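Structural prep section.
Before we set up the soaks we want a predicted structure of the protein with NAP in place, mainly to decide which crystallisation condition to try first. Input record follows.
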Amino acid sequence: MIETQLLSGTVVAAAVKEEVAARVVALAKRDKSVGLATVLVGEDPASEVYVRNKRRTAENLGIKSIHHQLPADTSQGEVDDLILRLNEDPAVNGILVQLPLPAGLDGERTVNLIDPTKDADGLHPSNLGKLILGRPGLTPCTPTGVMRILEHYGIEVTGRHAVVIGRSFLVGRPLALLFNQKGVDATVTMAHSRTPNLAAVARAADIVVAAVGVPKLVGPDFVKPGATVIDVGINRTDDGLVGDADFEALQGIAGAMTPVPKGVGPMTVAMLMHNTVTAAEAACSRGNRPSSPVVVER
Ligand code: NAP
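Run finished without errors. Recording the tokens verbatim:
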């Protein structure tokens, strides 16, 4: 009988945050403070909770939280102007626009306006492009958090077969690229809603990642005995928060597995802080100049 190892995101996030706090202190010794700007448009209750959590975490790590709360009827031009101001503000090292934006505002356009060197979420096309090219850049928080969990627990990735279920630009696609980077060297299959025989595809994996949004999709028929299961899903159901994997049913089958909650979730916020301090260090080395001016088409 396999004893399934619990991969605690809370534990790994605490380690990442400790490292971030130490780097913030090191920057302070060079007279450089670290600032994270959060932009929240409208009053979506879930978004408010997410932003509050990010701001609190930043402050706990010595990162200055600079918050901009805008009404839901803010125009695109006003949002654009705010982003451009934040791009130029030397006190701001990371910019996070909480998505989704209210109807009538263009989230993609807004993210594209962020100076890529301040792109705390790692979702600017320039940073996603660097990921494809295998160049250093700020990487998306949730996928980077997944890789960090595997690294922390010493789960072998090199030469292993990873099946990533879900191909969103936020999670699945960048995660497949991270698995595939030179030096990481996993062999990756990216599956999605049109993948035939999904359970059989997943069962071939040494590492199964579910980033789907379907509660308990990944059951015993999806997992080879001893395989690692990383559950990115967060689904609000009548039974509370559940992941995309069936945590109970996979005990004794999976070799190691993240829970939901307290799995990948805490890593997303921790990696946001990690990106912010990385951006601050890079700004410090550049003498605080933005990398290149952002051009806006009006
Ligand atoms: P998304 O943009 O909706 O993408 C979902 C992906 O799953 C799509 O590629 C879709 O395939 C695929 N899919 C849907 N139903 C499927 C099925 N029955 N079988 C196989 N594939 C299926 O979602 P997302 O933003 O990537 O988020 C995925 C989940 O992760 C959600 O539960 C979300 O709440 C959670 N999440 C958690 C964190 C965290 O911090 N833990 C962060 C981000 C997201 P197609 O492309 O073919 O439509």
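Observations: The pocket of NAP is lined by residues 142, 165-168, 170-172, 192-194, 198, 211-214, 217, 232-235, 264-265, 268 (CB under 6 Å).
Flagged for discussion at group meeting.
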